[in-house]
Write a structure and sequence with these properties.
4 domains, 5-stranded parallel beta sheet, 702 residues, Helicase, Ruva Protein, domain 3, alpha/beta, Rossmann fold
């Protein structure tokens, strides 16, 4: 039989109700984060119901791209639960001294009580640098907090030096003959009074039974200082005087030394009953943010973000932190997805509703936004790789800055207005004022839109170069990997990319047999430029492609065992003692051969597919984008040597599973025949390409 009191049950029921209400409000305010909010509330509830039962702090990790609402979601949850007075956020990109000062205040206010801490921008406390070596960090105390639930408090008491001077002076006075009994000066009083005349806090108390005054050896003004510095020992300030009255001179000096040493000792803030939010941008896990241009569809970017799993988060953490530190973060990791198109649209609608509500409450005017305004805000403000901040900035620039103009015109026309309709047509924002359904005034504002200008079809030299370059990538992806791209851009809004190809392979591994095909696809832009424009007219746009191809080959040969020896290779160094060196450059030479083979395959393939290359390049030179249906149609109509059935369909590749089943069947039938080709697989494992386009035999020879 349990012994839970009615009060405890009611408290738990109330907390449960508060959490459920908070969940509903959060889902209404934070668009596209329902799953994140569910996980957050569930994780938070374990601590929220019974914090006093915790022996170590509960740690909740929130990881996501910038601008997805990590910090604001935590802040809003704390606000909804009326927990602000017990919430302490720290930004780890700010001064370390500010954090230590706040921790010292926490020691005074919250020690051994339950409270919530949030360490934002946690990626900044990395203990492993970009080169993979350990680095010194000023935040070492945070790891102790996560491990033990305690954090050292650095205090420099204001009156410590004053008490230390008093100790030295009193010690000298004893040496000069001052006598003390029961905390009072009873011998050589004149010397004591003379020397202590300038000491702050000097106190003299007249005893009604004696003609001369009583002199406290430790002046009364210092009793409060002693209580402040030694509060762990005393309960009441008056106890200090009682303590001193039981001491002679040497005992008093010893006691003052104890107080001073105690105030200088390291103290610890006990956070064992607390909850800690770890919040950060983990670029290593969300690397698609750097691989994709801002013109990528929000839905495509959202889909890619959903593939990030806990093992990937931990792998990304290993790039920044030591293994034992990652263990201290625990296993409670909440992963934020990127927003999809529907979520961005909903977010725009909510922000416009806020503007309508504010204007209505302040000026009594009803605003009505046409759907063209929503479309404008989406096209101008949605950068999927950068989260919601650009959108909020665009809403402020396009909408909020127009409110003062609306109010100004209301004053000027001096007519009753009950509705203002706003729409966007022909690069003009139109504001139409109505009274009882009748138009009474209107004005227009030309919109200066930065993203619209960047997305303009330029039809210049750069777009022509990018058209050929990106067509090379797209054709080789289609022919060699049997994967028709989703998108091709020859002119983009991003500053980093002039064009890009987005293709979705339906397998997540790289096999040895497809390596040269992969390299050829990466070098497809380089090969296409060379074929169309000539070697002497090659541009510098292939830098990123060449680096990616080189890194891919070196990684597979040096780390993944796809070279002649299945071993890990590294340059000779004291820190790579468990790696194999390559003094004869055998691996590097193999890498060069594979890259050359990939380039040769790219050139051969594009030569055969030159008609397709020229047609696709011509289209992209005049149009900045091709969608998948357009790409598919152009490939099917112009490709040489392939049929529609040769291309990969959507779904999961089952090549290895089928191969395994074949081996099991072969073994069961006691046959030695090894079936290495499976019907309908595609690319190099069962290529349908013409013989002259087959990858070279280099990998089979290794």
């Amino acid at each position: 039989m349990n012994h839970l009191s009615p009060e405890l049950k009611n408290e738990v029921f109330k907390k449960k109700s508060d959490l459920e209400n908070a969940k509903v409000i959060l889902k209404a305010e934070f668009v596209g984060l329902d799953r994140v909010i569910d996980d957050l509330i569930e994780s938070f509830s374990y601590w929220y119901y019974f914090p006093e039962l915790q022996k170590k702090p509960v740690v909740i990790n929130l990881w996501g791209l910038t601008g997805v609402g990590k910090t604001s979601l935590v802040n809003r949850l704390i606000q909804l639960l009326n927990f602000e007075q017990h919430f302490y956020p720290f930004n780890l990109s700010e001064s370390d001294w500010d954090i230590k000062e706040t921790i010292a205040e926490l020691y005074e206010k919250q020690n051994k009580h339950s409270f919530v801490m949030m360490f934002d921008e946690f990626q900044n406390v990395r203990t492993i640098n970009e080169g993979g070596n350990e680095k010194h960090t000023k935040y070492q105390y945070l790891w102790e907090l996560l491990d033990t639930g305690k954090i050292p408090v650095i205090q420099y008491p204001y009156h410590l030096s004053e008490l230390h001077r008093l100790e030295l002076k009193l010690k000298k006075l004893l040496q000069l003959g001052v006598q003390v009994t029961g905390g009072m000066v009873v011998g050589n009083e004149a010397l004591f009074i003379t020397e202590m005349e300038t000491e702050s806090g000097r106190s003299r108390r007249r005893n009604s039974n004696l003609e001369k005054p009583d002199l406290f050896f430790v002046p009364e003004g210092f009793h409060g200082i002693i209580f402040e510095l030694y509060e762990d020992y005393f309960t009441l300030a008056s106890e200090v005087a009682t303590k001193l009255k039981g001491m002679n001179g040497p005992q008093t000096i010893k006691f003052l030394r104890e107080v001073i040493m105690h105030s200088m000792s390291t103290k610890y803030l006990d956070c064992s009953q607390s909850l800690i939010f770890i919040v950060g941008n983990l670029d290593e896990a969300y690397n698609m943010a750097h691989n994709f241009d801002i013109d990528i569809s929000a839905n495509e970017f959202h889909e890619q973000s959903l593939k990030i799993t806990l093992p990937q988060i931990k792998s990304a953490l290993k790039v920044r932190f030591r293994s034992e530190q990652i263990a201290r973060l625990g296993n409670n990791h909440i992963i934020y997805p990127a927003l999809d198109e529907q979520s961005y649209s909903r977010l725009i609608e909510l922000e416009l509703q806020k503007v309508k509500k504010e204007v209505g409450s302040q000026f009594g005017i009803n605003l009505e936004f046409d759907k063209s305004v929503n479309k404008l805000l989406y096209s101008e403000g949605v950068y999927p790789t950068q989260g919601t901040r650009p959108l909020f900035s665009s809403i402020h620039q396009v909408i909020n800055t127009q409110v003062p103009k609306i109010v100004y015109h209301l004053i000027q026309i001096e007519e009753t207005v009950d509705l203002v309709k706003i729409d966007y047509t022909g690069k003009m924002m139109n504001f139409i004022f109505y009274n009882d359904g009748t138009e009474v005034f209107h004005f227009q504002e030309r919109m200066v839109l930065s993203l619209e200008k960047l997305r303009k079809n330029k039809k210049d030299e750069m777009q022509a170069i990018c058209a050929v370059h990106e067509s090379g990538h797209a054709i080789l992806s289609s022919v060699l990997l049997k994967c028709i791209p989703e998108l091709i851009y020859s002119s983009t809004s991003g500053s980093d990319n002039r064009g890009f190809v987005f293709a979705k392979l339906r397998w997540d591994y790289i096999s040895k047999g497809e390596l040269i095909n992969r390299v050829a696809t990466l070098l497809g832009g380089y090969a296409a430029e060379k074929l169309v424009f000539g070697d002497e007219n090659l541009t510098n746009g292939s830098e990123s492609d060449i680096k990616k191809a080189t890194r891919l080959v070196c990684d597979l040969l040096k780390n993944c065992g796809m070279g002649s020896i299945p071993a890990a290779f590294q340059i000779e160094d004291i820190k790579t003692n468990q790696m194999i060196n390559d003094p004869e450059h055998e691996i590097n030479n193999q890498a060069k051969e594979i890259i050359q083979a990939g380039l040769s395959l790219a050139q051969q393939t594009l030569t055969v597919q030159k008609k397709l290359l020229l047609k696709m390049s011509e289209y992209l030179a005049d149009n900045r984008c091709m969608q998948k249906d357009q790409i598919t149609q152009m490939v099917m109509e112009n490709v040489v040597g392939l049929n529609p059935s040769d291309f990969e369909k959507s779904g999961t590749s089952s090549f290895y599973r089928k191969l395994l089943k074949k081996q099991v069947q072969s073994f069961s039938n006691k046959t030695d025949k090894f079936v290495s080709e499976i019907e309908g697989v595609g690319y190099s494992l069962n290529s349908n390409q013409p013989d002259k386009l087959q990858p070279c035999n280099l990998l089979r020879d290794l």
